[in-house]
User: Fold this.
Amino acid sequence: MANYSIFALARNALQRHRNWPQAWRSPQPRASYDAVIVGGGGHGLATAYYLAKLHGMRNIAVLEKGWIGGGNTGRNTTIVRSNYLNPESAAIYDHALKLWEGLSQELNFNVMFSQRGVINLAHDEGEARELRRRIYANQLAGVDAEWVTPTQLGELCPILNLDPNMRYPVLGGTLQRRAGTARHDAVAWGYARGADRLGVHIIENCEVTGLIIRDGRVEGVHTNRGEIRTPKIGVVAAGHSSVLAAMAGIRLPLDSHPLQALVSEPIKPVMPTVIMSNKVHAYMSQSDKGELVIGAGIDPYNSYAQRGSLPVIEETIRAVVELYPITSRLKMMRQWAGIVDICPDASPIISATPVDGLYFNCGWGTGGFKATPGSGHLFAHTLAKDAAHAINAPFALERFYSGALVAEHGAAAVAH
Ligand code: FAD
Ligand code: PYC
Assistant:
């Protein structure tokens, strides 16, 4: 870490930042690799890192059409939790949460994982019953979860509106104390640097424009930087998974929608935890810079424009002012959207496909940031061994034929 000491910071500032060492290289693509990962978001980079670190696959490349982390990884509201309903989901998200707990040490890169707790509010009896059911399910699955009363909520977050006469009064909520937030860019950068040091080629501005398939087997990819041969392709392209699947003649059970977020001007610390409300509908936390980080529901239409529509954020702001009246005079600084791929059961797909050597990791919808380390770890296993890990086996494409869906719309906690 010597390069990142206070002296190095001062030296680099005086040298006008001209001599910072590159955190990862910018290699020219080779003619062939043992495996190619399509998509340089957190999931793709984590997959490459674990392929190299745990499975000895070093002749591999991550192909990213833009810059790493410029997709949903750099656009999300950074909430990390594992309080899902079904045991299969609790297992996969808690696998990730355990990896989050050691990630800064693993990567020797501060991903600013902050276990400040995540609260899901109940605003009516039905919601309270459903949330309590989730607490019991979580506890049975070994995931920490507890009920908090309005009085406790007031202590955990003094700016929360607990007026019993509000439109949807707060009746209580669930709290997962091990949950929290992480710095999204740092996750991409940390995995990129780690993978690069293990020999992985991270190739930005390299768009996959076609898949080379012969006799039911992958043989490579066409890109805007030429053809690259490979016997194994892992597609981790979040909002664009259906586009990549179509290149192989595969139709995935996914819908692509914009999901929006916005941040306020920075203010003093007022929000020590993360709070999500399904019914009034907004989720909010405070970044270390002091901005309130606010998330919306999805736009109802399909789109690839990373913009989003005004009515959705207008409703979100209404909800935020209702839940936290002190925000009424805050200025909003930035708004954006990312494209999320949503499965009919709101659970992800980590799966082989009918094409030999072609694998997909997608469908994380509005909630895949929290899964980043676990998803990469399990997808690397699946790619290296040509077989699912026990934890991701329930998330194969097979479930859409067998009917063994893993319904998680409630726990997704974002309206869709
Ligand atoms: P991405 O980071 O999107 O990476 C995919 C990459 O593939 C992109 O960089 C893209 O450029 C690249 N790509 C696409 N097509 C090609 C191609 N043809 N060739 C080469 N590269 C290609 N999840 C949570 O858990 N908690 C949250 O609080 C949360 N909040 C969210 C808020 C918003 C506004 C949004 C949009 C999402 C949110 N999510 C959240 C969801 C989460 O961001 C995603 O599920 C997760 O980041 C997906 O990671 P990824 O690495 O798969 O995708
Ligand atoms: O999955 O926890 C989540 C989430 C929060 C905001 C968007 N997704």
About this structure: The first helix runs from residue 6 to 14. The domain at 114-179+255-342 is CATH 3.30.9.10 (D-Amino Acid Oxidase; Chain A, domain 2). The mean pLDDT is 96.
